[in-house]
Amino acid sequence: MTNQSSVAFVRRDIIPPAPPPPGQAGVLKWMRENLFSSVTNTLLTILSIYFIWSILAAIMPWTLNGVWVAGSLTECREIRDARGLESAACWAVINERWLQLLFGFYPTDDRLLSSLFYAEPLAAAGGLEAVFGAGSNATARIEFVNAMKADLSNLTIFFFGYWRPLLAVALLVVAVAPILYASLPRRLLLFSLAYPFIGVFLFWGGSFWGPMTVALGLVAALYLGRVVAGGYGLLGGGLAAVLAFILFFLNPLGVVGHTGLFPLFPHVKGVLDSVMPLGLPAIPSDQFGGFMLAIIIGTAGIVLSLPIGILLALGRQSTMPFIRWVCVTFIEVIRGVPLIVWLFVASTLLKYFLPPGSSFDALLRVIILVTLFASAYIAEVVRGGLAALPKGQYEAADSLGLDYWKSMQLIVLPQALKISIPGIVNTFIGLFKDTTLVVFVGLRDPLGLTNAIRATGEWNGIYWELYIFVALLFFTFCFFMSRYSMYLERKLQTDRR
Amino acid sequence: MSEAQTALQERQIDRSQMTVSDEIAIEISGMNKWYGTFHVLRDINLTVNRGERIVVCGPSGSGKSTLIRCINALEEHQKGTITVDGTTLSTDLKNIDKVRSEVGMVFQHFNLFPHLTILENCTLAPIWVRKVPKKEAEETAMYFLEKVKIPEQALKYPGQLSGGQQQRVAIARSLCMKPRIMLFDEPTSALDPEMIKEVLDTMIALAEEGMTMICVTHEMGFAQAVANRVIFMDQGQIIEQNEPKAFFNNPQNERTKLFLSQILGH
Questions:
Q1: In chain A, which residues have their Cβ closer than 8 Å to the Cβ of B104?
Q2: A452, A87 Cβ separation under 8 angstroms
Q3: A11 vs B: CB within 8 A
Q4: Which pLDDT belongs to residue A418?
Q5: Taking CB atoms and an 8 Å cut-off, how many pairs form between chains A and B?
Q6: What is the DSSP letter of B22?
Q7: Which of A184, B120, B147, B170 could be cross-linked to B116 through a Cys-Cys bond (beta carbons 3.0 to 4.6 Å apart)?
Q8: A388 reaches B (C-beta below 8 A)
Q9: B127 close contact with A: CB closer than 8 A
Q10: Is the pLDDT of residue A6 over 70?
Q11: Within 10 Å of residue A262's Cβ, how many Cβ atoms?
């Protein structure tokens, strides 16, 4: 009841909340407001529906009527005509060649495959050593393997023939998960730290002690850095760690035939190898290919470019002119030249700067270039985030006595990076898709492999199906990244909760 | 006279611990500062003894904020010396960090860290600068949050608090470093009238405990209630300073008279 007999007004009881009247909520209301609110809107709605329908009408029969089992494109077309269809996709090429699109010419573990699933023919051929041993006949081996692969299903080959890259990718997921989701146990991060060495071992094979010695060297260098940092500050410690690592353990830049100034690394590895030989068959980088290549280059590029990009962004804001100039020059030069040019530089020009007779892993070169390229972009994105942060945040951190690195680590970067998430993920998605450019420097990325598949007699002339499959692979990963970035933004939103 | 001022006068202020000692807390002599060629602070000489509560007032652009920001080196001065607790400010970063960890500062716009909870805002500096164990830092933080009367907000984020609450958290955050001197840079200027009182109350409570304080503020009620000295600045210079009673009742300089008539006139 209200008292409204005069100008003065006093509310005596508070009105309780009530549901809206019927027709003012739900689907119908939404449609009326969003689809048919005016004549123009209604026309546009009808036009859009017609447009979407015509596209689907053109694509869906082709997609859904696709032929899944056939040996060649000609066979596909025969099946299509026999069914009386006007158009039909030839998915049979994917069905037959998806392993190649995923792994390129990465070798399968034929010993394992034959002992597990091809035991009788293997015994007939004289056992493992006779077929695969050191003195075996190469032509006979290839014939044996081809016959075996023709007998085995693609899924069997996928799980057992490619167990190394498969396990490496599965472990990669385990290693990345605790970084992406804070709700997972923090102890898993230790595995994330160890993963680069495990991953390298699984993908490239060779002696187990190779990556382990490098890991050991890193730990030793970091320890030395910590000791030095106690007396000479963070910069001195960092420099000491890097120097120690390069001098003692790393063969700088992986140049074959050169082992660094104090070749401790090959000695440690040699001793470990002789004490306890442990390893997998080595697989050189030029046999890597397919979508696996995109995952390796993409992940390495993403993981490495973020810290480098952040340091470049901080360097660009530095009050020390020398550091600022170096960072600005690096960013502008890297960003001002197309990635493809840098890849060509890496694949050809770099040779002139290296000692004659030395080789430099092609994949490593690409990873370095892609990383540097992406980090220049990340640096600019992060700089935007740093600039968007109110000056008061820097001042508050300063006024509490936090030094530069602590205020960056605890106050500035967490907020600046949060602001930069969309831009950072944007750069990462770009980087991931740019990995297809390595086809131009002789690495077999999925797109290059579609050419290789078309080059065979059976699948000559097939385009759409292969491209759609490759597109779907990339889309899946990029869509996940995009969704994850949205999830992260929501999660980190503390100001309007 | 505003609501907040009336409320202040009603409050009984306990002056038993408001004692000024002979020990010098801050000594500024012959200090000058320029922004480019603009001379913002001109020949500032100021000695602050331990236990003093100084209010700095003056028209906007008079350099009062710049003055107190020079004391903890948020701004660099170009001439003269500033000595805080026996440490002379120079370009040496170690000296600056030492002074900053001894001097608390409260800003006009609070400057809480929005990505951290209230509790984390308060424990961050003790843990990372003073190396206090986390548990102990949290106990200290809760002690000061109770002191500023918002312990129940400890696990919320700054964005969920009102302006007055945020400013009280900012005061608690500074106190957690156990500073010997507190600087206030217009702590109530960004607040609604309703919230000014709660912040001023907190500041008075701090003064009652004998904290050395320098406050840039226009709250003349606060100045009259707790300050032992009021400084009036204009055009980068200290124009007049005196005890509050004499300052308000009997200003000497024409500029001071004009300023006081403008802010007390309505």
A1: 399
A2: no
A3: no
A4: 92
A5: 72
A6: S
A7: B120
A8: no
A9: no
A10: no
A11: 12
Surface of B (56-85) touching A: CB under 8 A: 72, 74
* Beta-bridge partner residues of B231: B56, B241
Predicted local confidence at residue B1, as pLDDT: 47
Burial degree of A62 (CB within 10 A; 0-12, 13-18, 19+)? middle
Does the pLDDT value for residue B66 go beyond 90? yes
User: Is residue A181 a contact partner of residue A188, using CB atoms and an 8 Å limit?
Assistant: no
Give the CA angle between residues A422, A424, A428 to the nearest 5°: 115
A190 near A178, Cβ under 8 Å?
Answer: no
The length of chain B is: 266
Q: Which residues in chain B have Cβ-Cβ distances shorter than 8 Å to A415?
A: 113-115
How far is residue A387's CA from residue A405's CA, in Å, rounded to a whole number? 17
How many of the other CB atoms lie within 10 Å of CB of A173? 9
Weakest-pLDDT range from A16-30, A306-320, A321-335, B247-261: A16-30
Contact check, Cβ <8 Å, A497/B111: no
Name every chain B residue with its beta carbon within 8 A of the beta carbon of A497: 157, 159-160
Give the model confidence (pLDDT) of A45-68 as tens digits. 999 999 999 999 989 999 998 889
Dump pLDDT digits (tens) for A219-249: 888 888 888 877 776 777 778 777 777 666 6
Residue of B13, B21, B65 whose CA lies nearest to B180? B21
User: Following DSSP, what letter does each residue of A269-316 receive, concatenated?
Assistant: HHHHHHHS--EE----GGG-BTHHHHHHHHHHHHHHHHHHHHHHHHHH
Interface of B with A in 139-158 (CB under 8 A): 157-158
Position A245 scores a pLDDT of 72
